[in-house]
Amino acid sequence: MSEYQPGIVTFLFTDVEGSTRLWEADPRAMSVALARHDALLHAAIETAGGTVFKTVGDAFCAAFFSAEAAIQAAVEGQRALAAEAPPSVTPLKVRMAIHTGPAERRAGDYFGPPLNRVARLLATAHGGQIVISQAAGELAREHLPQDLSLRDLGEHALKDLLQAERVFQVIAPGLLRDFPPLRTPQRFLHNVPHPATPLIGREREIAAARATFGLLPVTTGNPESGQFRDRQTARLLTLTGPGGAGKTRLSLHLAADLGAEFADGAAFVPLADVTNPDLVPAAIASTLDIGDTSGVSPREAIFNHLRDRHLLLVLDNLEQVMGAASLVSDLLAACPRLTILATSRERLGLRAEQELALPPLALPSFPPRTTTAGRLELEDEASVVIDDIRRSEAVRLFVNRAQSIKPGFDVTADNAAAVVEICQRLDGLPLAIELAAARLRLLSPQALRDRLDRRLDALGHGPRDLPARQQTMRDTIAWSYDLLDPVEQQLFSRLSIFAGGATLEAAEAIAIDLPSDGSSADLELLESLVDKNLMQLIGDEPRMRMLQTIRDFGQERLAESGEHQVIGRRHGEYFLDLAEESEQLLACGEQTRWLDRLDQEQPNLRAAIDWFRNQGQTEEALRLAGALWRFWWLRGDLGEGRQRLESLLEESAQVAPAVRAKALNGAGVLAESQGDWESATHLHQESLEIFRRIDDQRGVAWSLNNLGVVAIDQGDYRRAQSLLEENLAVAERANDNAGIATALTDLGLIAHHQEDYERATALWTRSLALFRALGDGSRIARALNNLGTIAMQLGEYERAHALLTESLELHRSVGDRQGIAGTLNNLADTTANLGDAETAMGLFRESHLLAMEGGNRPHAAIAMENLAALTRQHGEERVAHTRYREALLLYRAVADQLGIVSCLGGLAFIAAGQGRAGEAVTLLGATSHLCDSHDQLSLPGLGEAVVALRQTMGDTAFDAAWQIGGTMPIDDVIDHIAGQSRLPSSSMRRTL
Fold it and tell me: CA-based angle 982:986:987, to the nearest 5?
């Protein structure tokens, strides 16, 4: 068989029994033996018409047209291996399995349930044996040679597969006939319960556990199966994780999965109900069913029983009997063939121990973008997004459990966003996801998501056959909390005040009562909570955080303790000090470090603002928010920052004037960035009045500058020039170099708009030097961006590309999302002029996405319009139409008349090119009327288009269509376009 076969395929899997031991005994001899093995199996498979599609170590995976061909290959392979070999070659015992079923071929590999079944079937066989499934046996039986037959070995359960398999052994001359019983789970598992539900995810952890115990990965086509081969081997592995992480469920899977690979199988010892470490030996003895132990203690009995056993012993829930850790150590020392798998919410602390921490289940790789109705945006990309969502471990578990109570449930464009948010808000914690999915009997995913604000209440009443401690998430966390001593319980509840985690410094300042002598706090308490998985350490700093469901429980305990007020006050004051300390440092050489820190602390900063507000301390809340405006502008969400500032301003008319003026200016900058120029003007005018009243000249300069920028946005360059020249004079009198540099930057914008490139270059070069001296990375990058646009306007594209690339790299290093979006747009335009349209389109898309994520609709509109124009230039007019429409609607939302004119023109030119002359003339009539009503507006190419369309249509028809467009309100024109199935695009490019 020369090609991989789709559809119904027969698979032959093989591997060498005991290969790990043989490699360790004599690597050189094993290498020679395997070379012979590989050559003989390749020859047998290819002669029978099969194809080897994968090898993993000494394991072969082959595909065949027919079951009889696979049997022929297996028999000839075994005969060849059994033939007399040179004395120097180590004899190998190879086990083989055959199964037939439907499989899918992708990228040179096969995928589907039959591969799992044949791999599990192979695990039951012995070296020299060929086993075959019922499906393959029935297909081959009538076509086998007379000297071959199939021996019925009976029905057997296979690991992890719900449906048992009737297994047959191939009997043929020259092959061994008699073997021990198949290695099926029933024979090897002692007291290992069969879970009611399948294990979802955890493929990496399973592979890591196998590698820790020195076991080869199962050959299932999983690309992750072999990546842990270099992991240090051990005989004690402890699965750790918080309550609800799925430690017990994974240990059950591993017991069943690995049991057949130990000569004496696996034994599962549940310790959840054992509270005295002295009773652990009796629990182990009971599980092993040792029998009569009269005359010896349970401890002696288990040592005697296990001394020579090759067994996997699973000890579940050791955290409440940590005194039994010494028993574990003694067992490993006295029983050299014993391997122990423990589950615990903290490490056992033994030298022989390897820890495998269970992280939350993986979430989707990127959050879906949704409409206001919660449906996925971009219908043409929805299927790609949904596929990504469905592949994540957390969503797979949610869907699986949901389908058990609501058959047919699946992730769709309507519910995908809600499902993802549920899994995210539950931190990917398996038990929490299972309990949430059970609520779908009565609630839609959207309704369930909305109820998760009362997270612990929503996650109650799990299946009755769960242990009592897992009936609700509250019970699960209480199980861990009750094992803490009183001092640890107090610290745990105090640490729950942090939203999104805390640095060690913050934890000490807020949650720990430092000794009066000034000595350092006892870190052992913090380490103890981490060890018990009630806290997590993340990052290199490190940073401590709680999973949200655990934090909810901690906040309940904090409220009950009576300490919520004092701890809340400490938290609020700490983060107010942090925000005000960062304020001046966000415009100097330490800018990136402080932006990163504020980025990490966003949840705490929000919580601190809310705490002050709820306590009626509106001035403190406004001080904190006012100190953050630059962070929100550079890194955060423009809409969130503006909403917080404006709502606090409404409540705080009586605060200190300087506090109010600063907050007004910050809110105005954010409003201007969103394109709300009217609101920005009012905010800046009020701040200017206050700064003048309190004689704060730096504040006056700042407000004047902001008013000048809004005037530029509105195309009122005369007013902008007056405001910015006054701004520059005030900044110079105040020796405010940052204010001077900013004024020069914005005066350069006016010169650029007036096409006075020489003056613009001089102003921006001077501002760049001042910003370099200040170390303000984001504004150095903006100056470089501005100089790059001049070079682009002058046709110096290579120089423009260099300046813009330097600007983009600096913006990225700072993390200035608004600056990145603007520079990407201009770099895209330059790249297109250099002839690389594909790269340019990618840059325009990234610019648009970043601007939308940050809430900067003007930048988003410009990037989308430019992408539309480039798309149209390359002949994709349908796509260009869609993109123009999206840009047009964004421009209308921010009242950008120049953008509206440009997009309407682009749509008109597309209509003309597609033969829709009447529509084109109507749009041009509307565009011309809009330009006539604004002195600063014009549409390049309008005159030539009018002449061409008049010739095409004739005077009468042309004048009628022109009259319709010229008399329609512009909003009606845009509404008409928005109602069409195609979207608009533009032919004019703009710089940012």
Answer: 135
What residue type is 468 in one-letter code? A
Pair of tokens at residue 899? 């953008």
Beta strands 502-503; 543-545: pairing state: antiparallel
Look over the chain and give the mean of its residue pLDDT values, rounded to a whole number.
Answer: 84
Residue 13, pLDDT > 80, answer yes
Of 316, 244, 239, the C-alpha closest to 546 is 244
- Which pLDDT value is given to residue 402? 85
The secondary structure of 453-468 as a DSSP string is GGHHHHS----TTS-G
Q: Each residue of 196-245: pLDDT tens digit?
A: 678 888 888 998 999 898 886 654 444 444 454 455 688 999 999 877 78
Beta strands 236-240 and 338-344, pairing class: parallel
Task: Tell me the C-alpha distance between 634 and 819, whole Å.
Answer: 8
Nearest to 484 by CA among 524, 528, 440, 527: 528
Say if CB 661 and CB 694 are below 8 A apart. yes
The pLDDT score that the predictor gives to residue 26 is: 75
Q: Is 566 exposed, middle or buried (0-12, 13-18, 19+ CB in 10 A)?
A: exposed
Q: Are strands 130-133 and 165-171 parallel, antiparallel or unpaired?
A: antiparallel
Q: Please list, in sequence order, all residues whose beta carbon lies within 8 angstroms of the beta carbon of residue 209, skipping any fewer than 6 positions away.
A: 237, 254, 258, 341, 356
pLDDT tens, position by position, 234-271 = 899 999 987 778 888 899 989 888 887 887 888 999 88
SS3 61: strand
Give me the phi and psi of 781, to 5 degrees please: -65, -40
Q: Coil, strand, or helix at residue 874? A: coil
Per-state percent for the chain, helix, strand, coil, to nearest 5: 60, 10, 30
Residue with tokens 């604004």: 934
Q: Which residues, 6+ apart, have CB-to-CB distance to 295 below 8 Å?
A: none
Other beta carbons less than 10 A from residue 757's beta carbon: 16
Predicted local confidence at residue 137, as pLDDT: 93
CA distance 198 to 256: 12
DSSP track, 624-673: HHHHTHHHHHHTS-HHHHHHHHHHHHHH-TTS-HHHHHHHHHHHHHHHHH
Per the CB < 8 A criterion, the answer to whether 345 and 532 are in contact is: yes
CB atoms < 10 A from the CB of 367, how many? 13
Q: Are 418 and 357 in contact (CB under 8 A)?
A: no
Kindly report the number of other CB atoms within 10 A of residue 266's CB atom: 27
- From the list 886, 874, 881, the residue with the least C-alpha distance to 840 is 874
The answer, yes or no, to whether residue 463 has pLDDT greater than 70, is no
Report how far apart, in Å, the C-alpha atoms of 629 and of each of 670, 779, 822, 930 are. 8, 16, 19, 36
* Size of the chain in residues: 992
- Whether a cis peptide bond, with omega within 30° of 0, leads into 270 is no
Q: How far is CA 621 from CA 118, 611, 688, 717, 916, in A?
A: 64, 8, 22, 37, 58
Q: What's the token pair of residue 806?
A: 């330097």
| Beta strand pairing call for 94-106 and 149-156 | unpaired
For residue 556, the surrounding DSSP H or E stretch is helix 548-561
Q: What is the pLDDT of residues 894-928, one digit of tens each?
A: 888 889 999 999 999 999 888 889 999 999 999 89
| Average pLDDT estimate for 386-403 | 84
| CB burial of residue 343 (10 Å; 0-12, 13-18, 19+) | buried
Concatenate the DSSP letters of all residues of 342-396 into one string.
EEESS----TTEEEEE-PPPPPPSSPPPB-TTSPBS-HHHHHHHHHHHHHSHHHH
pLDDT digits (tens, 9 = 90+) for 267-285: 999 887 787 888 898 888 8
